[in-house]
Amino acid sequence: MSQLKSPVMHPQDMNAAFADAYNSRDLKRVLALYEPESILVNPRGDFEQGTTAFRATLHDFLKQEGTLVSKNMYCIPFEDLALLRAHYILETVDANGNPATVEGHTSEVVRRQADGSWKYIIDHPFGADPV
């Protein structure tokens, strides 16, 4: 698996690292942010476990033209885990080629790795939005 541009050494930096990887359009960089058996909630609300299982979901997300900004709203660390919430804005185009903005809030759990870096173990891109 591809190495990150640089490992995420502070859990509060995960969302910015995800946006940077997304904006690079490099699927390997995005996948490198996840533990191999982590869980991603897809746009249908289904759980996909393992980077092999959700590779296609992230690939489809990367096909969207535009620029992603993701700002960490909070980080609650506990030992080797942290709960995160982010606000994201994706400036993109709609099906007709018109400018569009997609905005929302995420919920994630990250875990410290043996080398001190952090990776996603649960990523819910829509998990903090009101229903």
TrEMBL record:
Signal peptide: none annotated. Pfam families: DUF4440. Residues 16-119 form the DUF4440 domain. InterPro entries: DUF4440 (IPR027843), NTF2-like_dom_sf (IPR032710), Steroid_delta5-4_isomerase (IPR011944). This is SgcJ/EcaC family oxidoreductase.
